[in-house]
Amino acid sequence: MNLISIVVLVLAAGPDAELFRDRGDVFVRAGTVQGLKVGAQVPVMGVRIGNTDEYRTAGHATVLEVWAALSRVSLDAGAQASVSVLPDGQSIGVVELPAPLPSIAQTVAEHSAPDHHGSVFLDPAGFLFFGPSFGLEVGGGRFTGSVYGRWLDAGLLGNVTLLSTGDRFQFSFGIGARGRFYFADGFAGAHLGLGVEWLRSVVDNSVLLLTMTTNYLIPQIEGGYRWAWSHVFLGLSASAGYAVLLFWRTENLPGGHLAAEVGPSVDRSFYGAAKLEFGVFF
């Protein structure tokens, strides 16, 4: 028989392992750790292809028994004709192992935590409370920062609780920023955060014939939970804070004369709100 020189190589498809004979049986120095199992077939490498770094597949070895780092194999005709004939215990050939599979932890992490950079969101439930809001969120890891706007005078509860007899909102709004920490990857799950909002309201009073403009600053804490599905999410959160009056102005409407005598009835107050956010990740 012809002796073939053995070249140990590493191919792009996967690592290599030594093929050897012991007491009439043929073994591969690889096992379950390298991804082999009973019935698997691995290529037995043959001669070099021209001047390249690639080798022809001489045949295949079928795994008969497998342990952690060793497998007993059976060679097909092509492999038997190509391997070297050497004493027991010495290398007689090289097989190409399958490319290593990702670990379970890696697979779970890749599929359970999408790589989001941020989101856009809308709180339509604000029509029932203190006005709908919309915003932009960006972040990395488990931290995000957001900016948002609020249409204050469109909120039903705001019109009921913030207005007195004869009052009517003109266009009023809020502008806020918040930072959040999520307890799970992917900008989802339970979260806590800090925020601040500037709230500007403009109210006409048809009894006193004046317009009052107030500006409040509201530092707040918030928490909630976000349910995420691929590229969309639904979030429920609640916030609590303390509203402080920054400055205000009153102006007389036609026929009015009490602007200089009337001011805001509240210059500071505890604040609470709830949000139901729908959004899209990007």
What does this structure look like?
- By secondary structure, the chain is mainly beta.
- The chain has 2 domains: 86 residues, Thrombin, subunit H, CATH 2.40.10; 172 residues, Porin.
- The protein contains 3 helices and 15 strands.
- Strands 7-8-9-11-12-13-14-15 form an 8-stranded antiparallel β-barrel.
- The longest helix is centred in the middle third of the chain and has 9 residues.
- The chain is rod-shaped.
Proportion of residues in β-strands: over 45%
Rg from alpha-carbon coordinates:
36 Å
Helix proportion of residues, in percent?
Answer: under 10%
* Unreliable residue runs: 1-13
Structural category: mainly beta
Helix and strand string, N-terminal first? EEEEEHEHEEEHEEEEEE
Spatial order of strands in the largest sheet? 7-8-9-11-12-13-14-15
In DSSP terms (H or I, runs of 4 or more residues), the helix count works out at 3
Key terms:
mainly beta, Porin, Thrombin, subunit H, rod-shaped, 282 residues
Quick overview of this protein structure:
The chain is mainly β and 282 residues long.
Topology diagram in text:
Blueprint: E1 16-22, E2 25-28, E3 41-48, E4 55-66, E5 71-75, H1 77-82, E6 91-96, H2 104-112, E7 118-123, E8 133-140, E9 143-151, H3 156-161, E10 167-169, E11 173-184, E12 188-205, E13 210-229, E14 232-252, E15 268-281
